[in-house]
Hints:
Blueprint: E1 19-23, H1 27-39, E2 42-46, H2 55-58, H3 90-101, E3 108-109, E4 113-120, E5 123-129
Parallel strand pairs: 1-2, 2-3
Antiparallel strand pairs: 4-5
Amino acid sequence: MKRFTVTPFTRQPKRGILKACVIGAGFSGIGTAYVMEDMGIEYEIFEKSDEVGGTWYDNIYPGIGCDVMSHLYSFSYFPNPNWSESFSRGHEILEYIKKLAEPIRSKIRFNTKSSKNVLEEGHFRNGLLN
């Protein structure tokens, strides 16, 4: 199994550089970005909000939390041995995602919505709204 790191990536791409678009800087979008980093794929993340975190940033109602145990709801390459609860609250998960995103923040375009994404004849077109 491949091991990911959180340090800046310097490995050369195995196959030429590809350009990719990641929609959303939530848990999955940030995780996808790290896989692309490891594979040497050039990418940019488009996030509709002004901060990373996805649902954990957008939803702040009282008592919000995760129904998956905290140690499972984290990336193996960025463990958090200091979760305060077995089932963490939203604010703690959001802080985890912010720390995870720090090394790649420069690749995130905030306040940008994607209205339409189309692949035509091998070319990707998107409808980005700022």
